[in-house]
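Example 3.2
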Amino acid sequence: MIGSSTFIQALAASLTNPDIENRLTLLKKTISAVEQQQIKNTARLSRSLVKVLVSVKKDPTATPDQLALVADFKARIGLFDPRNEENRVR
């Protein structure tokens, strides 16, 4: 398992990219890596993922298909986000 700092930096950099498809591709790859436990899941990573999701959602050029992907990604993030009470290790 590798650290998540590289992914966090890439997600932050994607916020300045006007291309929604690039942001969605990065989200998909990062979410898949967390689900397959290839990268460490942290609260900072989840926060970065959500920031990119919100940027796509607020983009006036986003298509309905892209917004549907955002909803799907948000649900997937909710399953592993350590900030959610049910996902916290006790």
